[in-house]
Write a structure and sequence with these properties.
Blueprint lengths: L3 E3 L5 E3 L1 H4 L6 E8 L8 E8 L2 E5 L5 E3 L12 E9 L8 E6 L18 E2 L2 E2 L13 E5 L5 E3 L1 H4 L9 E7 L8 E6 L5 E5 L5 E3 L1 H4 L15 E4 L8 E4 L8 E5 L5 E3 L17
Antiparallel strand pairs: 1-2, 3-4, 4-5, 4-7, 5-6, 7-8, 8-11, 9-10, 11-12, 13-14, 14-15, 15-16, 17-18, 18-19, 19-20
Length: 276
Amino acid sequence: PQLYHNDGGGHFTEVAKQAGFTAEGWAQGVCVGDYDNDGHPDLFVTYYGHNRLYRNDGKGHFEDVTARVKLPATGTRYGSGCTFVDYDRDGRLDLFVSNYVDLDLARTPKPGSSEGCLWKGLAVMCGPRGLPLAHNILYHANADGTFTDVSAQAGILQPGGRYGLGVVAADFDNDGWPDIYVACDMTPSLFFHNRGDGTFEERGAAAGVAYNFDGQLQAGMGIAVADYDGNGFLDIAKTNFSGDLTSLYSNEDGKFLTDVSREAGLGARQFLGWGV
């Protein structure tokens, strides 16, 4: 990863190596949160391989504490999006990680070898369709500074696998409990409603945010949240692959969101979207 230091004069300096970011890998996403409540923002970086948690010592340096806090430090997974969220409101930031595909490079089909390895008639790298689906993970922050995978008991695994990318945590129904939305590539996007008892209910289709306005799958990527229409409920913007609109879901009442992408004028340019 790269880290840019703001010198306060309108200029940034790349300081990753000096700050302790020496690991190399296929990094995908990053999220910021003070996981140990010491007043210094820490960084979690997702990778193909294994993800890394970097603790900020408050002196301009970060330490890789992935193994120390009992997050997976070995094995191979395809981490994509992440967000820190205190889902149980115990005062400690928990961690949600979306995964893209269950990818084994040694067993991946060759470009052009199947329908999932073609795009507009051209042989391309395969996927995501045709590759094994991945599962999202929720890690609970323990009082001793470690994390525990609670995905199963919290209901995160209940919907099954997805090709997950961007993720955001926000209180979409104003009940005081943070919910989680995951943008998925060519699989229904996920909307985890926080029940307030340590578990979630997946309501993507029921809430109107799993598909587009025509009920079609999309290649969802980046997500942003804001109350763009000022009605007191947070709305969702989601970028998608080329040839598709950027999705804008208007939150009507905290329970149902309407895809207003066309009405909002987001159909003029259908370029490949990523962050938003």
